[in-house]
Inverse folding.
């Protein structure tokens, strides 16, 4: 999720969610963005980020980690996780969902007006960032 616009990008991991798969998926997804939108990535303490140095090198993005058991340090992400639960309830085996399922969920979230964005949609705000550079 891009923090200033709340734009959601979901990475499909069809085989597993190992550090290698997360690395490859994140590098591909982030490199699809224009360089001016690749500022930094903030993550929790999960083992899936074991290759954070390779992600940093592969994307030219700084990677930061929240303190353990401190979800408030990633408030926007936690809110987005809650919204994603509408599509993928807690305990859902995400391997059963296709890339199209993830694209649909991301599209719907990105087209949903947000109070925090003065009722703009994340897609509208993100589009403005795309044309500013």
């Amino acid at each position: 999720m891009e923090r200033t616009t709340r734009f959601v990008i979901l990475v499909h991991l069809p085989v597993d969610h190992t550090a290698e798969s997360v690395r490859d998926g994140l590098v591909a997804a982030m490199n699809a963005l224009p360089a001016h939108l690749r500022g930094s990535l903030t993550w929790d303490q999960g083992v899936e980020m074991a290759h954070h140095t390779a992600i940093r090198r592969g994307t030219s993005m700084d990677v930061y980690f929240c303190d353990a058991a401190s979800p408030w340090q990633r408030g926007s992400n936690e809110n987005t996780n809650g919204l994603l639960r509408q599509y993928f309830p807690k305990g859902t085996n995400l391997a059963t969902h296709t890339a199209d399922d993830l694209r649909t969920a991301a599209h719907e979230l990105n087209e949903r007006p947000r109070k925090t964005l003065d009722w703009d949609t994340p897609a509208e705000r993100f589009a403005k960032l795309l044309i500013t550079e």
Observations:
- The helical segments are 19-31, 52-59, 75-84, 99-110, 122-131.
- The radius of gyration is 15 Å.
- The mean pLDDT is 90.
- The first helix runs from residue 19 to 31.
